[in-house]
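tool_call predict_complex ligand=adenosine monophosphate
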Amino acid sequence: MPKKASARKRPATKETKKPARQRAAPVRAALPALSRPIDTFDFCRSLIRDVPNFPKPGIIFKDLTPLLANPRALHIVLDGLAERFIGEPIDAIVGIEARGFIFGGALAARLNASFVPVRKPGKLPAAVDSVQFDTEYSRESLEMHKSSLREEARVIVVDDVLATGGTADAAAALVRGQGGYVVGYAFVIELAFLGGRDRLLPVRVESCIRY
Ligand code: AMP
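tool_result ok
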């Protein structure tokens, strides 16, 4: 019987030599050393910059760019929102221009859902459905490509900030107009004193950081 090639012994080199069996390192040891606890939204809150009188006098703009610049904080808010919907069948994330694209796109990837942009007028190239609404600042419209959603698609509407709720409510109207079902809303920041949540109820509203 011919000898199997694999049976022939070759001298072990540095690359092929098996490492000595080691005791498994404790899981905790794999975590990076941190100078402060990061598993709370307080850390993320500390990275939100208040810009007074932008875009209009009297408005305190919640600037999320410092949070976006911090990879840990970005993970915390994305995971924090995603875990609230994990295990639920979600067909699409509808993200509202412009900052809703950042969080909505990443959330769609985490939840294995498609991403559908809702944009300001004239930005989407193909035929659109459109809706008008009032914001804290002015009268606006939003558009979504026609046939973006299948009938009874389960959708989460995502934006960076919930203020009066008009913008998210308008995006939901676009979703419902295409036969979709709004399962929930997800925001990084909720300006609770403006009562936007009440406008969106009874649909579930999730947010990470409340003011
Ligand atoms: P609203 O329709 O009143 O809920 O307003 C929400 C939309 O306006 C979101 O797309 C936000 O990006 C933006 N927005 C409203 N108020 C603020 C604020 N104080 N800081 C940052 N963005 C805001």
